[in-house]
Amino acid sequence: MNRFATVCAAFRIVCARMGFVGVLGMALVALGGLLPPAAALARSDTHASGGGAIVYIHTATPSNSIYDWTDLDNPVTNNNPRAIVFVTPNWNPNGGGGIYDNHPIGVWYHGGKWAIFNQDLTAIPNGAAFNVYALPNSSYTGVFVHSATQSNIAANFTDFSSRLSNNNPRALIIVTPNWNPNGVGGIYDNHPIGVWYHGGKWSIFNQDLAAMPVGASFNVYVFSYQVYGAFRHTADPNNSVYDWTYLNHPVTNNNPKALVFTTPSYYPNSVYNNHNIGVWYYNSQWAIFNQDLSAVPNGASFNVLAFYSPYSPYQKK
């Protein structure tokens, strides 16, 4: 049984989800899928926990969305091509809502705004929500932009180098594709991604084994278990059901206002999860789910960074 069937059977559409219909592919914005690059090429925290970095929920509306993207609007990213933005789809912010966006996503800069876009150029659904973690630039510890080059690509992955991640299999990493770092460039990577550790290096890889494109860029944040709200979650029969796997952490439990960011990790169990993912809140817990309603594979792992509430910096343990 898939997640939606379970939801319907348990009356969660009416009760737990506060009356919103959570059907995959709900009313898309009635606009064609133009390329983000068409417009872009024409226009040719004290640490990450502190000052300047913000965390909030962005919801796509007709006034902030067009074609395959939805514009962010905040003082950190506006008119700032150097901003570093991390995003994770949020199915039901604050325990309400219910909109799927079953597409690989990324961020891009145009006309003074950063935007979240669908890599396959499909329209952003009205009401789709995203957790956003925005930093003014890459000067924060562990934060940088990685670009795939012929020298660091092998098959479906690209190796990156960082003093915090090299020779460190315990590093935790979240990644968001960046279509045009500093407002320059424009390379798609229309595939679900993840990170993996091999030979002393961490890499970003395409889950479907498609070749990594030269020039593809990614916002990367490397952090550790010492950051409160940071952990690696592994799906198992005790914490997973249907297309989701429940998280269990003091920051996220019994907290519908938590903001969760996640990236799949092939390390340590060598399990692929070739699906677009998101997070949702149910039964007093946050969970990671597959947008296409496929079961989360046993042993699949995910790097997680959770904030207790919007705008809150995380603290050291």
Can you walk me through this structure?
It holds the Pfam family DUF7452. This is DUF7452 domain-containing protein. Residues 113-222, 229-305 form the DUF7452 domain. The chain is mainly beta and 317 residues long. It has one domain (23-317). Helix content is 4%, strand content 34%. The protein has helices at 3-9, 36-42, and strands at 54-59, 65-66, 69-71, 84-89, 105-110, 113-118, 129-135, 143-147, 153-154, 157-160, 172-177, 193-198, 201-206, 217-223, 230-234, 240-241, 244-246, 259-265, 277-282, 285-290, 301-307. The strands form 6 sheets. Strands 2-3-6-5 form a 4-stranded antiparallel beta sheet, with helices on one face. Strands 9-10-13-12 form a 4-stranded antiparallel beta sheet, with no helix packed on it. Strands 16-17-20-19 form a 4-stranded antiparallel beta sheet, with no helix packed on it. Strand 16 and strand 17 (244-246) form a beta hairpin. The N and C termini lie far apart (40 Å). 47% of the residues are buried. The model is unreliable at 1-47 and 312-317 (pLDDT under 50).
The total strand number stands at 21
Order of helices and strands: HHEEEEEEEEEEEEEEEEEEEEE
Poorly predicted parts: 1-47, 312-317
**Number of continuous helical runs:** 2
Distance between the ends: 40 Å
Residue fraction in strands: 25-35%
Overall pLDDT confidence: 85
Biggest sheet record: 4 strands, antiparallel
Strand arrangement in the largest pleated sheet: 2-3-6-5
Q: Give the total of domains.
A: 1
Cα gyration radius (Å)? 18 Å
Proportion of residues in helical segments? under 10%
| Overall morphology | globular
Supply the helix-strand structural class: mainly beta
InterPro entries: DUF7452
Domain DUF7452: 113-222, 229-305
Pfam family, one: DUF7452
Protein name: DUF7452 domain-containing protein
